[in-house]
Amino acid sequence: MYKVLFSSISKKFVMALAGLFLILFLPVHLIINFMLLKNDPGPFNKAAHFMATFPIVKIIEILLIGAILVHVFYGIFLQIQNWLARPVGYVSGSKSETSFFSKFMIWTGASVLTFLILHFFNFYFIKLGFVDGNPEDFYSVAHGLFKIPAYNYIYLVCFGILGFHLFHAFSSAFQTLGLNHRIWTPVVKVFAWIYAIAIPAGFAIISITLWQFR
Amino acid sequence: MKLTLKIWRQKNATSKGAFMTYKMDDVAPEMSFLEMLDALNKKLVEGSNEPVAFDHDCREGICGSCGMYINGHPHGPVPAVTTCLLSMRYFKDGDTVWIEPWRAKPFPVIKDLIVDRSAFDKIQSAGGFISINTGAAPEANSIVVPRKDSDNAFDSAVCIGCGACVAACKNASAMLFVSAKISQFALLPQGRVEAKERVRAMVDKMDELGFGNCSNTGACEAECPKQIKITNIARLNREFYKAF
Amino acid sequence: MGTLNSKIPDGPLSQKWTKYKASVKLVNPANKKKLEIIVIGTGLSGAGAASALGELGYSVKNFCYQDSPRRAHSVAAQGGINAAKNYQNDGDSIYRLFYDMIKGGDYRAREANVYRAAEVSNQVIDHYTALGVPFARDYGGTLDTRSFGGVQVSRTFYAKGQTGQQCLLGCYSSLNRQIKKGSVVMYPRREMLDLVIIDGKARGIIARNLITGEIERHSAHAVVLATGGYGTIYYMSTLAVNSNASAAWKAHKKGAFFANPSFLQIHPTCVPQLNQFQSKLTLMSESLRNDGRIWVPKVKGDKRPSNSIPEDERDYYLERRYPAFGNLVPRDVASRAAKERCDAGYGVGETGLAVNLDFRDSIKKQGKKAIENKYGNLFDMYKTITGIDPYEEPMMIYPAGHYTMGGLWVNYELMTTVKGLYAIGESNFSDHGANRLGASSLMQAAGDGYFILPNTISNYLADEIRVAKISTDRPEFEETEKAATWRLEKLISINGKQTASSFHKRLGKIMWDYCGMIRNEEGLKKALTLISDLKTEFWSDLKVTGTIKEMNPELEKAGRVADYIEFASLLVTDALERRESCGAHFREEFQTPDGEAQRNDEEFAYVAAWEYAGEDNPHILHKEELKFEEVEMKVRSYK
Q1: Where along chain C do the CATH 1.20.58.100 domains lie?
Q2: Do the Cβ atoms of B212 and A180 come within 8 Å?
Q3: What gap in Å lies between CA A79 and CA C43, rounded to an integer?
Q4: What's the mean per-residue pLDDT of chain C?
Q5: Distance CA C217, CA C473 (A)
Q6: Does the beta carbon of C305 lie under 8 angstroms from any beta carbon of chain B?
Q7: Could you give the residue range(s) of every CATH 3.90.700.10 domain in chain C?
Q8: How do beta strands C59-63 and C184-187 pair?
Q9: Substitution target from B88, B141, B190, B192 for chain C, most C beta carbons within 10 A
Q10: Weakly modelled stretches of chain B, pLDDT under 70
Q11: Is pLDDT above 90 for C322?
C-alpha cells in the first residue's frame, strides 16, 4: 500500500490530478471576478454568497482545499527527493534543451502559494470567520484592495508567475497521466499555452482596470 | 587547435575530488573526444602522472560504456552522439572544456570520470525480462506482431544504458531508461504476459535506488544519444496505472 | 594431452546431434545446484550459456571486464543473424546453411560442428523472438530476412543495423532473470588473470577486481571461456578497444591448445583510417553490400570527387570479377579485391586507401525512405564519424581486422584440451573454418551458449557430482595467485618510458603489414623477428603508472598487450606453417594465375592445434585431420 501511494509515479499521478483540478477552478474564479468590473456590487456579492453556501459548491470547496494541500505537500516532497538524488551538481551547469518553465516549478509554485495565503487572509479566512471582516460584501473589500498600488504590483507579479507555472503544468499533467497521443498531444500543448496566457491575463485586466480606471 | 581542459579528478570513491586544468596544444579536428583524451593520457603517463580514468569500450556508440558531462551536456554539445563518437571538429581553438562525471546519488564516482552504474543492472534484473526458458520458445512466426508495434518496440529497445538521461535530468531521474525497457516489452505480445509484474518491480527498484522523480522537463530526451522519446515515459505511466 | 580426440559422434551427419543428446550423461536436478560453473564473458555465448545453465539449476558465476554484462562486444554486431528457417521459400535448409558455411570457410571447418550450428540456428531465432528481441518484420507481422555475402538465399534475420545489440540485450535480459533468481551471480569489472588447474582439471580462476585492484580466487567444477576474439591484435580493428585475448592465452599456457590462430578475418566494409590518432576502425555492416555498389575510378589516381566521375569511367570491380555474386562475394574475397585495387593505385580519398560504396542507384530505384529504413543508423553513424552524408556521396570504405575464426581448440562437446575447460562463441575455433560468412557469428555464439554447451557440459559434470565445493585455499590457487600477482608487479616495476598503448600500436602495425590480408614467407619471418624485438623492448621500457591495489586501466592494458605480444608469435608461426592460401589466410606464394586463393587439400586439410611447451620452447603442432564425408572439397568459386 505504501508503494502504491508513494511510488514516484503515484506521487506524480496525484500531483497531476490535483493540479488539473486547480487548473479547472481558475476560470470559474475568473468569471466571478469579472463581475467586479460592474459598478453594481450586487451580482458579485450574490455570486460570492452562492459560492459560500450552495451545498455542491461546499463539497467542491473541500476538494479544492484538499487539492491545494496535496499538491503543495507532494510538490515539496518530490522536490526534496529530487534534490537528494543529486547531492553534487555540475560546475558547467545544464545547457540541455528543455521545457524551460519546468525547471522552476518549485519556485513558481511557492510564489503562487505565498499569494494564495495572502489571498486567504483577505477573503477566504473572513468567510470562515478566522479573520474579522464582512463576508457579505467582498465587492467592497476587493475594490478597496485594488486601490492599493503595492497590492496590485504583488497581484500582477503573482499572476505572471502563475502563468509560468501553468505553461509547464498543463501539458505536463497530461504526460504524467499517460495521456499521450500522436495528434492530441500537440493540440494540448497549444491549448496549454493559450490557457497559461489567457487566465493570468484575465485576472490582470481586472486588477489594472480597477486600479487605474476606476 | 589549442584547448584548455578542466577535468574532474578523484582518486577513488571515498576521496575528495577536484578539477584539474590541462592544456592541450595539438588537438586535431579529426580526433574523437576520447582520442583527444588518449593523447592527454599518453602525455600524462610518459610524464609519470596518473592518466585520467574514463569508461570506454566499443568506440562506435553502441556499448554505452563511455559517458562524460562535457560543457553542460552529457556526451557533449552535439545531439544524438555518444562521447566516443563526438568529433573534435565541433570545438574551436582556444575553447575551455569542462569534463565532469555523471552526477547522481545512485551513480557514485569510482574514479575520475568513471561512475558506478550498476543501479541500471539492478533495475533490469528486477523485471526487465521475459520469463522463458531456453528451448521452450514457440516457432518464431507463430505469433505475428504488427510491423508498427515491432518498429516502435525497436525504437525503444535501442537504449544503450549509458546513463545520459539520468545525468541530464535535473532530478537525476531514471524514468527514460526504465520507460524504454518497459515500452519495448509492452509493445510486443511476448512481453504482455508479465507486463504488470514487470512495471511494478522495475519502478519499485528504481525508487528504492534513490533516483529522482520525473518532472517532464525533457532534458533526457534532448540528450539521449539514441534519441529515445519521452513518449516512452507516458507509456510507462500508463503501464504503471494499469498494473493496479 | 598430446592426442586430439574430437569426439565426433558416429552416424550420419544429420543424426549426430540428435543421437548425442539422446545418449549424453545427465545430472540429476538435485545435484545441479551443488555444481558450480564459472563463465567468463557476457556476450551472446557467455550470457546465453550463463542463463541457460542457470535455468537448468546449476550455480553459475558470470564474469566480465565491463561495468555491466550488457556491454559485451556482441553488442556491436550490426547486420544480422542467420537461420535456416526458409521463410522466404527460396530453397534454404539446414543442409544448405551448413554447406554454405563449409564452403565459405574454405573447407577448413569440422563438418559435424558446422552442421550442428546450422541445426540449432532455428531454435536460436525462436528463442530470441520469445525473449522480445524486436527483429524486423514484414507488413503481415511475420519476420523479415535479408541476404548477406557469400550466399544466394535470404536467411539473415535483422533488427535494422543493430542486430547484435538487440540479440545481446535479449541475452542480458535472460541473464537478469537468472540473477534475480539467484542461480547466476554476476561479477562485473573483473578480469581473469589465470586459470587454476587441480589434478588436470579446470577448477577455478584468479581474477582481479578492476575497481579495488584486489586479487580474487573463484572456484568451480567447470570453467567456460566465452571471451571473444583477438582482432585487436591489429591495434585498430572493428572490435571494442578493450577486447583482448588474455583469458584464452592464459588458458592456452595452462594446456589448452590453440587452433588455427592465423585465421583472422578482415572485414571489407569499414570506415578507413582518417588520422594518426585513430583508435578504432568502425564497421559498416556487410548488409550494405545488398544495396551499395563498390567501385573505384577506371583511371589510376583519378582524384575528382566521386560524384563527378561519369558512369562509364567507374570500375565496379566486384561485379566485373565475380558476376555470379557481384557485390555479395564473401568477406575475404571482397577485402583482397579492395586491397588489390588500392595497391594498384586506384584507391579513392586522400590516402588512396579506400574504395567507394555507392548507394546512388539503390536510392534512385527504391527511394531514400526505403534505404533509410534498412540502414538509417549506419548512414547516420558514417556521417557522424566522417562528416560525409552517404545519401549524397558514396561511402568510403576499407578493410579492417574483424573476426577471428581461430581460437581455442575444442572437441565436439566444446571442451578444450584441458578437462573441464570449455570455450564457446568466437573464443573457440570450431565453426567457421578459414573464413566466416556474414551473420553467422551471432548464430554460432548464441547456438553455443544457449543450446549446445548446456547439453554437452552435463556429460562432464555427471562425473563430478561427488566432488564437493572446491576450496580456494588449495595450494594450486595459492600458487596461481602468486604467479599472477608477481606478473602484475613486474609490469609496474619496469618503470620505463613507453606506454602500453604505444607498444600495442607498434605490434598492430607489424601484424597488419606482415600478417594481414596478404602474407608471404619473407614477411612472416620478418614479423617474428620484429615481435621478438618488441617483446624485449616491452619488458625493459614499459611505463605503467599507479599500483595494483587500485583501479588502474594502464595496468590492465599493459597485461593485455604483454599477452598479445606473446600470442603474436604463435599467430605468425601458424601463418608461416600453413603453406597454402585458404579463406582469409592468403599466402602470396599460393595463388592461381588470376589471383585467387589456392588451397592445398593434400597437405593442409587439417586443424592446426598448437600446444604450449614453455616460455623458451617452440610450440608443438598437433594436426586434427579434417574428414569431409558429406561434402566434396571444391575450389571455392564465386565467379
Answers
A1: 483-621
A2: no
A3: 40
A4: 95
A5: 9
A6: no
A7: 267-401
A8: parallel
A9: B141
A10: none
A11: yes
Residue intervals in chain B for CATH 3.10.20.30: 3-111
For B138, the 3-state DSSP assignment is coil
Q: Cα separations (Å) of C537 from A133, B40, C157, C244, C528? A: 95, 23, 47, 21, 14
Do C132 and B117 lie within an 8 Å CB cutoff? no
**Domains of chain A from N-terminus onward:** 2-212 (1.20.1300)
Nearest CA in chain C to B191: C132
The CATH code of the domain at B118-242 is 1.10.1060.10
Retrieve residue A108's grid coordinates.
513558481
Q: Domain C483-621: state its class.
A: mainly alpha
Q: Given CB atoms, is C280 within the 8 Å cutoff of chain B?
A: yes
Rounded Cα distance, C547 and C570, in Å? 31
pLDDT of residue C79 exceeding 90: no
Other beta carbons within 10 angstroms of residue B48's beta carbon come to 10
Q: Output DSSP code: residue C467.
A: P
Instruction: For residue range C355-393, list pLDDT tens digits in order.
Output: 999 999 999 999 999 999 888 888 988 998 888 999 999
**Separation between Cα atoms, residue C307 and residue C304, nearest integer Å:** 8
The letter for the amino acid at C96 is R
Residues C159-181: tens digit of each pLDDT = 988 999 999 999 999 999 999 99
Statement: C267-401 belongs to CATH 3.40.50.1100: no
pLDDT in tens, C454-466: 999 999 999 999 9
Q: Which residue is catalytic, options C331, C336, C341, C599?
A: C331
At a CB cut-off of 8 Å and minimum separation 6, what does A40 contact?
Answer: none
C381 contacts in B (CB within 8 Å)? 60-61, 85
Q: From the candidates B31, B43, B58, B122, which should be mutated to test the interface with C, based on the most C CB atoms within 10 A? A: B58
Q: Could you give the count of Cα atoms lying within 13 Å of A129 in the half-sphere of its Cβ? A: 0
* Chain A and chain C touch, per 3+ beta carbon pairs within 8 A: no
CATH 1.10.1060.10 region(s) of chain B? Answer: 118-242
**Closest C-chain CA to B10:** C551
Tell me how many residue pairs between chain B and chain C have CB atoms under 8 A apart: 228
Considering only CB atoms, B42 lies closest to which of C137, C274, C499, namely C499
3-state helix, strand, coil in chain C (%, to 5): 40, 15, 40
> What mean pLDDT is predicted for residues C612-635?
94
Q: What is the ipTM of this complex?
A: 0.98
Distance (Å, whole) CA C265 – CA C584: 6
Question: Considering only the top CATH level, what class is B3-111?
Answer: alpha beta
> Who among C127, C241, C384 is closest to B85 (CB)?
C384
> Helix-strand-coil percent breakdown of chain A, rounded to 5?
80, 0, 20
Give the separation between CA B203 and CA B237, rounded to whole angstroms.
Answer: 10
Task: Tell me how far apart the alpha carbons of residues C415 and C428 are, in angstroms, rounded to a whole number.
Answer: 9
Q: Band the pLDDT of C274: cuts 50, 70, 90.
A: confident
H/E element, C395: strand C395-404
Is residue C331 helix, strand or coil?
Answer: helix
Mean pLDDT of all residues in C426-440: 95
Determine the pLDDT at residue C1.
Answer: 42
Closest chain C residue to B124 measured between Cα atoms?
C176
Question: CA-nearest residue of chain B to C378?
Answer: B60
The minimum CA-CA distance between A191 and chain B, rounded to whole Å, is 17
Centre a 10 Å sphere on the Cβ of residue C580 and count the other Cβ atoms it contains: 21
**Local confidence band at A3 (pLDDT 50, 70, 90 cut-offs):** confident
According to the model, what pLDDT value does residue A2 have?
67
Long-range contacts of C368-373 (CB under 8 A, 24+ apart): C371/C291, C373/C160
d(CA C318, CA C526): 32
Q: Which residues pair with C82 in a beta bridge?
A: C156
